[in-house]
């Protein structure tokens, strides 16, 4: 047995689609392809037209033992190279090297080559290994693109520091093939070994919309990023995830079944229904506590005086699930502005949560809209305060806690 097979055991039998873009680091894609093949993976390669100038399709075809795909149509016989079936075929799509240009197009959804159309239709986990000059890598445009892609669940295999093709030294050098293979291996290993594998989880996310009349509504600032990151992370670890989503502009994370709702009432019904055959739920949505007692059927006209709206309480979805919970896992969130920890602790009992994720609006970098969060986990045994982390990392920590609860239950 070759050492690669031991080191990358989780890659065996996996179908890996390798995307190669036009960077000088494309030569390392050959070594990566070899490593993946040696580990027992099936590899297909899609290249951008420019990538062919850095490494020949013949090299990649020989190593992957599959024809290389570059064009939408085969120039020889006119056969269509279907990006949809490629995306469906793959268990994982890794783009290595990924140029600044390709990362920008991935972020904005430009689909002017087969590698990109495949990215847009892929439902499997996607990883990228950026490769570029240090200034291009450090540029706010590239950093923003990487942040956005991370928020969507794309795994970034960070470039290393070292001598670059330009002769400059800095960060931008594509990660070594061994490191990329190890990242992919970890991605599959998490799925194979996780106690979340095959478990059903409900995640609520985003803001609810409470109609006042046909034009206006009451809502809040939640963007849904944290809940979407959690849904994506649970799915990556092999769970079947139903994401009950209020209003957000986020794309659905790979492998997640999304059910869109508007009001707290709709969210209540969708969540209770999904929880019936679930192993647990993560309550991340910012649900309105009050909704207009009556919704006007026509637009409310303004006049000179004040307007008073009568509001009624909505039902507490989390508390309701808490009464039905049994041995299932129930995780809640708390967003507090004062007496944070005490208020959050009270929710443990009131809603029967296994643990509460507290974020305080006081902490810089935490809360609405951003890509980072600073949270404290609170359970019946105590508190664990985490440093400022990306929302994806917070999602990973939450998934980790859920895994240990599942192991104990
Ligand atoms: O009581 P509070 O709104 O602070 O509790 C927050 C937790 O309860 C969050 O996990 C939130 O998603 C959940 N919640 C809910 N239904 C409501 C209100 C809050 O599921 N109507």
In words, what does this structure look like?
With 409 residues, the protein is α/β, with parallel strands linked by helices. The protein has 14 helices and 21 strands. Strands 12-11-8-13-16-17-19-20 form an eight-stranded mixed sheet, sandwiched between helices. Strands 2-1-3-4-5 form a five-stranded parallel sheet, sandwiched between helices. Strands 6-7 form a two-stranded antiparallel sheet. α2 runs parallel beside α3, α4 packs across α6 and α10 packs across α14. The two termini are 38 Å apart. The site of cytidine-5'-monophosphate has 14 residues, from α12 and β16.
Q: How many domain modules?
A: 2
CATH architecture of the largest domain, by name, is: 3-Layer(aba) Sandwich
Low-confidence stretches: 1-5
What is the CATH third-level topology name of the largest domain? Rossmann fold
* Arithmetic mean pLDDT: 91
Helix content: 25-40%
CA distance, first residue to last residue: 38 Å
CATH class of the largest domain: Alpha Beta
Major sheet summary line:
8 strands, mixed
Small molecules held by this entry: cytidine-5'-monophosphate
Give, in spatial order, the strands making up the sheet with the most strands: 12-11-8-13-16-17-19-20
- What is the CATH homologous superfamily assignment of the largest domain? CoaB-like
Which percent range describes the beta-strand content?
15-25%
Overall shape: globular
- How would you classify the quaternary structure? single chain
Compute the CA-based radius of gyration: 24 Å
Q: By helix and strand content, what is the structural category?
A: alpha/beta
Number of DSSP E strands:
21
Separate helix tally? 14
């Amino acid at each position: 047995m070759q050492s690669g097979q031991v080191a990358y055991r989780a890659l065996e039998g996996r179908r890996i689609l390798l995307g190669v873009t036009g960077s000088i680091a494309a030569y390392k894609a050959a070594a990566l392809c070899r490593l993946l093949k040696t580990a027992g993976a099936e590899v297909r390669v899609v290249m951008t037209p420019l990538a062919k100038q850095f490494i020949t399709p013949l090299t990649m075809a020989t190593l992957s033992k599959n024809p290389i795909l570059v064009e939408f149509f085969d120039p020889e016989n006119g056969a269509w190279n279907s990006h949809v079936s490629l995306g469906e075929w793959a268990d994982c799509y890794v783009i290595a090297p990924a140029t600044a240009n390709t990362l920008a197009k991935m972020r904005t959804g430009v689909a002017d080559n087969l590698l990109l159309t495949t990215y847009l239709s892929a439902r499997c986990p996607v990883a990228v290994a950026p490769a570029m000059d240090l200034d291009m890598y450090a540029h706010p445009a590239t950093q923003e693109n990487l942040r956005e892609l991370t928020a969507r669940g794309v795994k970034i295999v960070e470039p290393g520091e070292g001598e670059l093709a330009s002769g400059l030294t800095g960060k931008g050098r594509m990660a070594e093939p061994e490191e990329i293979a190890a990242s992919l291996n970890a991605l599959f290993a998490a799925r194979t070994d996780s106690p979340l594998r095959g478990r059903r989880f409900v995640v609520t996310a985003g803001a609810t919309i409470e109609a006042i009349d046909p034009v206006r509504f009451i809502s809040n600032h939640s963007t849904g990023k944290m809940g979407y990151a959690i849904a994506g992370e649970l799915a990556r670890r092999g769970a079947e995830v139903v994401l009950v989503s209020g209003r957000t502009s986020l794309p659905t994370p790979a492998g997640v079944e999304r059910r869109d709702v508007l009001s707290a009432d709709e969210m209540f019904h969708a969540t209770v229904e999904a929880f019936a055959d679930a192993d647990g739920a993560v309550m991340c949505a910012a649900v309105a506590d009050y909704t207009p007692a009556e919704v006007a059927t026509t637009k409310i006209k303004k006049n000179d005086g004040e307007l008073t709206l009568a509001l009624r309480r909505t039902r507490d979805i989390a508390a309701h699930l808490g009464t039905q919970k049994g041995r299932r896992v129930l995780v809640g969130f708390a967003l507090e502005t004062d007496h944070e920890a005490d208020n959050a602790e009270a929710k443990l009992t009131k809603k029967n949560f296994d643990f509460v994720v507290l974020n305080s609006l006081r902490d810089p970098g935490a809360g609405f809209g951003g890509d980072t969060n600073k949270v404290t986990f609170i359970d019946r045994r105590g508190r664990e305060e985490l440093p400022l982390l990306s929302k994806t990392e917070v999602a990973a920590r939450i998934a980790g806690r859920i895994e240990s609860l599942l192991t104990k239950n």
